[in-house]
Write a structure and sequence with these properties.
Elements (H helix, E strand, L loop, with lengths): L1 E6 L3 E8 L1 E5 L1 H5 L3 H16 L4 E5 L14 E4 L4 H5 L1 H15 L4 E4 L14 E6 L3 H4 L6 H17 L2 E4 L2 H11 L6 E3 L14 H10 L7 E4 L8 H10 L8 E4 L4 H12 L6 E3 L4 H5 L1 H4 L4 H6 L3 E4 L8 H8 L4 E4 L4 H5 L4 E3 L4 H13 L1 H15 L4 H15 L11
Parallel strand pairs: 3-4, 3-6, 4-5, 6-7, 7-8, 8-9, 10-11, 10-13, 11-12, 13-14, 14-15
Antiparallel strand pairs: 1-2
Helix pairs in contact: 2-18, 9-10, 9-16, 14-17
Length: about 400
């Protein structure tokens, strides 16, 4: 480890150790949904705001979809044929050799897991736990997935030196389900891509509107089309509003069985022209700017409101993206969603379709109220800046960096 004479948290003249920080970067390079956005935003923020450290991104295979660049960002791929062929084993087990060879001080599992036996090495470990939804709603997952998740999550919470929870809700769940000591867990709220905070150029908006044949007005839903996220509840609310106004709903996301259930309801109730599955658009399927979510800020900013009445979330990143976009948000009054929306959201009972429809109607008809929500949302979003999110995580690292542990030592 290297020594430097300027410490950003404690003032000039303090001595601190520069760190080599490793990350499980599978999702950062390959995932276009929540875990990927979290990983890319956090890594980029850390590298930008704490450039004195070196960041090593351990990636099981090359990616053509996402890249992370910076003079202090280093991609690490499996180096021999066996590790390349069995990349999942490399990621879960053999990766420890790469960590030690590069002098990694802290390894951060960004998506609920850490390598086996990393606690027996000199590398300190941190794991981010996003949610324990499979524990609360096991029926919505296959039995084998629940068992795999349970083993990985319990192992990570037991053997990581520190656990980061992305919300107070997740922290409470970790303590409830796994009996993890409270002092081992730190809540570090996430941020989102800074592009959402920038007002998209009107020319760009027009181009994207034409590109995807978006309507002049629309409500917006972003997320996987699964039962927990309650797209069917939104469609039922749209049906209730059929005699008041007919603003379409644009859906970004995909699904399987539950998606078909939603489509059946749409067809049976004559809502075919009111629900647009944008991810099925022929251009959206192939456009890199859509697959990388580069077009999303403009799509958000042209919407009437974000509708996100999920039954349960670990955090709810589309809510934060909408707040940064100055877009009114309708979301649920349960789980972590009040943490994500604060005073800047309109809250509903996700089981009450009438409440969802009332929120949609009020935001559409009461322009002054919609503007108030936009302003309150923007102000609340300032609690989730990239700098603050990165600084909170860096404080966790700093508490671990005081000394390298002996292999097998519990912190």
């Amino acid at each position: 480890m290297k020594v430097h004479s300027k410490f950003p948290f404690r003032g000039q003249g303090s001595i601190f150790v520069l760190m080599n920080i490793g990350f499980d970067a599978k999702r950062a390079y390959h995932n276009g949904t929540g875990l990927g956005h979290y990983s890319r935003t956090l890594i980029s923020s850390l590298a930008a705001y704490f450039p004195q450290h070196e960041y090593f991104l351990l990636n099981p295979k090359p990616s053509e979809l996402f890249q992370l660049n910076g003079k202090n960002i280093h991609e690490v791929l499996p180096s021999n044929l066996l590790h390349k062929t069995l990349s999942s084993v490399w990621r879960s087990t053999w990766i420890k050799n790469d960590l030690e060879k590069r002098g990694i001080d802290i390894y951060h599992g960004l998506s609920n897991e850490i390598p086996l036996d990393i606690h027996k090495t000199a590398v300190r470990s941190v794991v981010t736990i996003h949610d324990l939804i499979f524990e609360r709603y096991p029926a919505q997952y296959s039995k084998i997935d629940v068992e795999i998740y349970k083993r990985k999550f319990i192992y990570a919470c037991d053997h990581a030196d520190k656990v980061i929870a992305i919300s107070e809700q997740t922290k409470n769940d970790i303590m409830e389900f796994y009996n993890t000591p409270e002092e081992k867990i730190t809540v570090c709220y996430q941020s989102c891509n800074p592009a959402f905070a920038k007002t998209a150029d009107e020319k760009i908006k027009r181009q994207i509107k034409e590109k995807y044949s978006l309507p002049d007005q629309y409500f917006l839903y972003v997320g996987s089309i699964i039962e927990r996220k309650n797209l069917l509840g939104i469609c039922k609310a749209i049906y209730l509003l059929r005699n008041d106004f007919r603003i379409p709903l644009v859906v970004i996301g995909d699904g399987t069985r539950y998606k078909q259930q939603v489509k059946d309801f749409i067809k049976q109730n004559g809502l075919d022209h009111q629900v647009i599955f944008l991810s099925e658009n022929s251009l959206a399927k192939v456009a890199s700017s859509f697959l990388r979510a580069e077009d999303f800020p403009a799509i958000y900013q042209m919407a009437t409101a974000m509708i996100y009445p999920s039954f349960f979330e670990g955090f709810g990143i589309p809510v934060l993206e909408a707040l940064w976009s100055r877009l009114p948000v309708i979301t649920s009054n349960v789980s972590s969603l009040p943490e994500a929306g604060g005073a800047g959201a309109y809250y509903v009972n996700p089981n009450n379709t009438e409440e969802i429809s009332e929120g949609m109607k009020r935001i559409y008809e009461d322009k002054a109220f919609a503007e108030t929500l936009k302003e309150k949302g923007w102000q609340y979003a300032q609690n989730f800046t990239q700098h603050k999110s990165a600084a909170d995580v860096m404080k966790v690292y700093e508490k671990l960096r005081t000394k390298r542990k002996n292999p097998g030592e519990k912190f």
